[in-house]
Structure formats: C-alpha cells, structure tokens
TrEMBL record:
Any matching Pfam family: PRAI
Family stated for the protein in its record: Belongs to the TrpF family.
Segment forming the signal sequence: none
Origin organism lineage: Bacteria, Bacillati, Bacillota, Clostridia, Lachnospirales
Protein name: N-(5'-phosphoribosyl)anthranilate isomerase
Keywords: Amino-acid biosynthesis, Aromatic amino acid biosynthesis, Isomerase, Tryptophan biosynthesis
Pathway(s) served: Amino-acid biosynthesis; L-tryptophan biosynthesis; L-tryptophan from chorismate: step 3/5
Gene: trpF
E.C. number(s) listed in UniProt: 5.3.1.24
Reactions listed under catalytic activity: N-(5-phospho-beta-D-ribosyl)anthranilate = 1-(2-carboxyphenylamino)-1-deoxy-D-ribulose 5-phosphate
An annotated GO BP: L-tryptophan biosynthetic process
Length: 203
C-alpha cells in the first residue's frame, strides 16, 4: 500500500479530519517563508491531539539543528524532513543528536538532479519545487529504482494515475487538498480514499 503524507497542517480542525482518515504521516511546516508555517507551540498543541497511529513530520529549511532537537526531544515531531541546502555534515551532526528518521527533499528539474541524489538519509522525497504545486517530468525517473515519496502537484485529479505509473513508496500532498489556501476536509478524505483504492505493485 502506498504511504500517504498530508502536509501543511495548521489547525485543530485539520487534525480532526486527520484522525478520521488516518494517513501514515502529516507535515508541520517550520519554514518561516511558507504560508503554512506554524510555531512550535501550535505544533505542540496539534501533536497532542493527533492520533498516535499517525506520525508527525517536521518540515525544515536550513533550520538551526538545536530547534530540530528540541522538537524531537519534546515529542512534537517524529520524523525530520529537510528541504534546504543541508549538507552531509549537517545531516551527520543531526544523526548524532536524534534517533528520528530523516527525509531529504530533492527538487527535480532535470536528469542531472536525479543523478545528484546522494544523501545518506532514511527516505528521499522528489518534488518539482518547494511547495510550488506543480508536477515534474515523469520521464526523468526512467531507470530510477530507489524508494521515494512523490510530491509536487498531486491532487484528487491525478494521484491514482501517478501511483499506477510511478509506483512511489509514498505520496505527499499539500496544496492539492486545499481550497483558497486552507485545508479542505472533503478533498483530504477523497485524496486518502483514492490512494487506498490503488494497488501499488511495489508495496
């Protein structure tokens, strides 16, 4: 079964729907420039109301490592997702401080970007851009056989097709389950339902 990550949760209403549909993961965005940014205190409140079967992923862009450690140690996030220019030294230092899985996000715009995937992290995420809401050229993945989360431009209109064609380990959606910039409960329910309808031959 394809793993499901619904990203950019910002409210208790969002969490109520999450607890109903039970995706594998949700995302809390801690990047200041994002319109889905939430504070550590809000994230703590939301995590306290989250069903324990759903793992919370903290999304960061070149964040101070001490802040990530704080969020992990206080059980506000379960998994770390890096979306910036974090290098091997940064990742290695983080690994010495926490035991949480790490996801590294790559922006895929060319074949060279695929070839540059080399970070030693637990998971990788392939995206068209940092929350740009667009898909990338699927042909770039020809011959690519690593497990990955597929992100960028996913929606209730295309997610089944993407899974059937690309067989990703997981799918990650944010803007595709929103209406006018806010999470849409009906779209969240529909997205999860659609993913679970598809038999992923790899998983």
């Amino acid at each position: 079964m394809t793993k499901i990550k619904l990203c950019g949760m910002t409210s208790e209403d969002d969490i109520k729907v999450i607890n109903e549909v039970l995706p594998d993961y949700i995302g809390f965005v801690f990047a200041n420039k994002s319109k889905r940014y939430i504070s550590f205190d809000i994230a703590k409140l939301l995590k306290s109301k989250l069903d324990s079967r759903v793992k919370a992923v903290g999304v960061f862009v070149n964040e101070d490592i001490e802040n990530i450690i704080y969020l992990v140690k206080n059980n506000i996030i379960d998994i770390v997702q890096l979306h910036g220019n974090e290098d091997d030294d940064y990742i290695n230092k983080l690994r010495t401080k926490i035991n949480s899985p790490i996801i590294y996000a790559y922006q895929i715009k060319s074949k060279a970007d695929i070839k540059s995937i080399n970070k030693e992290t637990d998971f990788i995420l392939l995206d068209a851009g940092a929350g740009c809401g667009k898909t990338f050229d699927e042909n770039l993945l020809d011959g690519f056989d690593r497990e990955y989360f597929l992100a960028g431009g996913l929606s209730i209109g295309n997610v089944k097709e993407k899974i059937m064609k690309l067989h990703p380990f997981g799918v990650d959606v944010s803007s595709g389950i929103e209406t006018e910039g806010k999470k849409d409960a009906a779209k969240m329910r529909k997205f999860v339902s659609l993913v679970r309808e598809v038999k992923n031959d790899r998983y």
